[in-house]
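Expect chain and fold; thus:
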Amino acid sequence: MIGLPRTQPGPRALAAAAALATCAALAPLAHAPGISRDEGRVMGGAVGEVRAAPLAPLPTPDVTAPEPPLGRAAARTAHGLFSRLGAGHVRSLRLGTVAFAAGLSALLAIAGHGLAGGAGAILALLLFWLVPRHLHAGLLATPDVAAAALWLATAWAYRLAQRAERPATRRAAAAGAGLLLGAALTARTDAWLLLAALALHALVAPRLAGPSRPAEETAAQGSPAARGRGGLLALAAMALLGPALLVASWPWLWADVPARLAAAFAPGRAPASGAWDFLGAALAGRPPARYALVVTSLTLPAAVLWTYGGGLLHALARAVRALARRDMDARDDLLLALAAAAPFVASTAGVAPLAAGVRPWLPAMPFLALLGARALVVAASWAWAARRGPLLAALAVLVLWPALRQTIHAFPAGASAWNELAGGAPGAASLGMQRQDGGEAAAAVLDLVNERSRRGARIWWPRTAPEAVNAWTRDGRLRADLSRADGPELADLAVVALDGASRDDEYRAWAALRTARASAGAYLDEVPLVLVYARGGAWR
């Protein structure tokens, strides 16, 4: 399944093609989305480091908001390289994420090929990337896609350590699993839950190994006990090397390692009431534990959602059958299901980062895409084995075409995309759900602001990160003569990004600028995402 002990030319070629295609698709689009407050913090840290020295050590993060270092390090390194090659400021900061996205695509191709052949590889890639919010995450300088790639890579290395025939390969894979988990922790500290999921898998896997093999085959491949010890060795390496790599790469921890490690791994603070308000009626009277499932069910394109769910149910059914009858090897099924469940558990437990949409549990999605791809291949074989190819192609079009249309339609506002079950953007807005992520929708009105605002105008950006405004100015997307105002009373213009939770910023703009009529705005399916209010004479 995930990674073959010796990857054949077919999977290797698919992996290389997938990585190159991902780079070719994402790099030209990387400048288009807006900049959220989360991404602004990453960019702000990276830009400061670049100005000092492109490869300088990371400065100590703010102790009030410790963040793992990988996101800033990737943005800093990409900026130091690609800005010298002529890439724009924002694009170069985001190309680090594009590199991780290419790695994720290569892993999906290898894993999908091992699980369901070439068709499984291609379907896994499309099932992941043809989702508006997944594509959007792949274009931002945030650590979410890096975390997804590293979670999958860690599971791959663990599986290889558990399955490899040669002892040397098992040891190398175990060490790789430890280092990869450490890298995942530097992206997001909730990756420790993947270690717990893999430990549970190691406990149950011997009962899912399928029928016993002949003695001569067992002797040739190594005893099951020896191969099982490879999995335990991987777990030990992950438990030791993972935290060690995290501490070595995160200077913020060095001042007081025990206390700050405890703080880094502690459950996150409970979301403020406003963080849940955008769910409106969808979560009325329900516990926050259902938050992740509700948001997932309302953001993934419906056909992709059913495919993910069908793939997960298929894997669980195979695992149950293997436990009861022991007539099949279902270790991979359990591995994918547990790895997919871990990010949802992290979000429910409060240890995942607080973020909009599916970003807190994005590392689950590659595993669900793999299971969904295998489910489509199996369904086509079961339904009509003689015409499996054409039927699989028809199923793929049925599932992926609506997702492709939604992705194109929402771009570049992927964080504002809601699916058919939510009623699209209008239905989500009527439920009071979040319209955009952290002020990023302001990017959609930059051209109008440049064209229509008077020279030297002062602009109030109430929900947009200061780092975003600085980045747009540095990139030439915002006129250099326009200055930032600290409040609407001192402003000539107000660019108000709407999130569906509160209209206080709009009311302040109305009162200060003496108008309730927007001069301009950006919309998705007639739902306003950002509105521009202007003082008399400031808008031409």
Summary: Residues 1-8, 49-65, 215-221, 269-287 have pLDDT under 50 and may be disordered. DSSP finds 21 helices and five strands in the chain. The first strand starts at residue 458 and ends at 460. The beta strands are 458-460, 483-485, 493-497, 520-524, 527-534.
